[in-house]
Amino acid sequence: MKNIVLTGFMGVGKNIIGKKLAEELGLKFVNTDDIIEKKEGITITQIFEKFGEKHFRKLEKEIIKKVAQGKNQVISTGGGVVLDQENISNLTENGVIICLWASPEVIRERAKRETHRPLLEGVDREERIKELLDYRKPFYEKSADYIIDTSHLTVEETVEKILKCLRFKQIIKMPSLARRTLLFLRIFSRRDKRSTSS
Ligand code: S3P
Fold first, then answer.
1. What is the per-residue pLDDT across 7-33, written as a single tens digit (0 to 9) for each?
2. How many CB atoms lie within 10 A of CB 19?
3. HSE-up of 184 (CA within 13 Å, CB side)?
4. How many domains does the chain have?
5. Which residue has its alpha carbon closest to ligand 1 atom 12?
6. Cα 143 from Cα 117, distance rounded (Å)
7. By alpha-carbon position, which residue is closest to atom 4 of ligand 1?
8. For residue 198, is pLDDT > 50?
9. How far does the centroid of ligand 1 lie from the alpha carbon of residue 115, in Å?
């Protein structure tokens, strides 16, 4: 099966959603930043501090090329992967690209307590997120097969949307009637809980 590649800005939830999606589909989950950290023996923040962003992008490109050659994986990519056309060509050769989107306000909220993103450290976060998101938007758009706005979705709802896109593209089959019933009941009971708690 083709790789399912998740792109999108920092903090949109590529990891948590990717892990859940991989679990649902019985695929391997890989995170390209984790592979870089393991290979280099230092964190992404330390790579940025010691060698700068340009060096990080070089390492990222090498890893993307390698990972893209595999199959049956959900690949969670770093937020800047889309800026390099060669990364996208490599990833699309054997994969479908799903971009996870979120509004700047939601991203700021989700990334609030995190300190492992060098591009968001020591700056006015709100400004930086808006600025980067504006600049990157066309790159996310043109490289994606599908874009899903996760701003108001739970992890489960986002995964369901991704599965729908994959079925539409005939990358995965329709679920059985039993599974469809189970999914319906799950979503129905979540809606029920929300309306009783509001
Ligand atoms: C980056 C996003 C990070 C990481 C690095 C650069 C970016 O990954 O690759 O800090 O340029 O947007 P996440 O998107 O997983 O935070």
1. 999 999 999 999 999 999 999 999 999
2. 16
3. 7
4. 1
5. 79
6. 23
7. 78
8. no
9. 12
What residue type is 151 in one-letter code? S
- Indicate if the alpha-carbon torsion angle 97, 102, 162, 113 is positive or negative: positive
Ligand 1 pocket test, pick from 48, 119, 128 with the greatest ligand atom count within 8 Å of Cβ, gives 119
Contact residues of ligand 1, CB 6 A cut-off:
10, 14, 33, 44, 78-80, 117-119
Dist. CA 96 → ligand 1 center (Å): 20
CATH of the domain at 96: 3.40.50.300
pLDDT digit string, tens, across residues 44-74: 999 999 999 999 999 999 999 999 999 999 9
Domain assignment of residue 164, given as a range: 3-197
- Average confidence (pLDDT) over 138-159: 97
Q: Rounded to an integer, what distance in angstroms lies between the CA atom of residue 90 and that of residue 136?
A: 19
* 35-43 LR contacts (CB < 8 Å, sep 24+): 35/63, 35/67, 36/60, 36/63, 39/63, 43/116
Question: For 74-104, what is each residue's pLDDT tens digit?
Answer: 999 999 999 999 999 999 999 999 999 999 9
Cβ burial of 88 (10 Å; 0-12, 13-18, 19+) is: buried
Pick the atom of ligand 1 nearest to 33's CA. Answer: 9
